[in-house]
Request: fold
Amino acid sequence: MKLSHRITHLTPGGSDGWEVFYRARALKAAGQPVIELTIGEHDIRTHPSILDAMHASAKDGHTGYAAVPGTEALRQAVATRIQTRTGVATTPDNILITPGGQAALFAAHTAVCDEGDVALYIDPYYATYPGTIRGIGATPKAIPAYPDNGFQPRASDIARHAKGAASIMINTPNNPTGAVYSHATLQEIATTCIEHDLWLISDEVYDTQLWDGDHISPRALPDMAERTLVVGSMSKSHAMTGSRVGWICAPTKVIEHLINLATHTTYGVAGYIQDAAEFALGQGEALEAEISAPFARRRQITETLLATQNIVKGSPIQGAMYAMLDIRATGLTGSAFANDLLDTHAIATMPGESFGVAAAGHIRVAMTIDDETYKSALQTLLDFATTKAA
Reply:
């Protein structure tokens, strides 16, 4: 008996780049205290008011099968949110509710890529991107975005890879780099999509975590609404990571087919979860600001501490909950640095190499622990780097 090639080759070589994270979790399970600066998990939990709404909905009986496309009320709430933020006309018919952003990414690629098609994405990338593309039978191809350009992809690199591809996926504000793509960068991407007839998949789950610049949804650019699929989620904006509720915003003809796909795969999202998400969106920007505020503070802590030394360099933290730190002055790879830091100081970070080749010699720090512990851990990291560079 053998397993399918598709399932056994989601991550070639058996690695998904998360070995330091797994080591840190194993140490914690064995009883050793570890400071985790690894994954994008809020240090605060889902707001009590959202949980109250979830509980009330479940108690009222919304525990059976919910409408596969999503409840009409939640689809309307998402459509209203998107139209208000982007100025692009959006109706519930443009929205499919999904079990989180990851399921939305998988569904979006299923919609626009056939077996063997080339699907582009930007390197550095969130760790699941290439596996998601392989999972639907397409061929992933990375386009590098380098630190000397603030991790903004260059038009020439995009154009060089675009010929013959079916789609390109972008993520801004960006995980892992913290970059927010400029209007010029997004226009270059849009121009390439139009010239080469590409679908654009835009992962916008960090759209409420914006510290510098403007968040521009490429769906709002001229002639892009009919070729763009936007992925959103309640996970980052409302600290609802475990609730698994997200969406795809796309042309109605795409959503019609995606509803058929959902019928044959996820069969929708629990109704009481959707009701809680509708309630959360109804609280408006005040709640979103409350959820994002800790990361704005820790961004300032990061920039202040980085300015006290000259060994570790930081890329601009324009958005999201991460800092991408350049540790090449230590002479170590990102992987070696992260493993040594874990072994000597019980601080876990993610090697830049976990997110592709363009961030080699970097580490990603998740700003997801309380301010004082974060400040202390980051200072320890900087002191450690100084000793390595000596």
In short: The mean pLDDT is 96. The chain has two domains: 5-45+286-389, 65-283. The longest helix spans residues 284-306. The first strand starts at residue 35 and ends at 36.
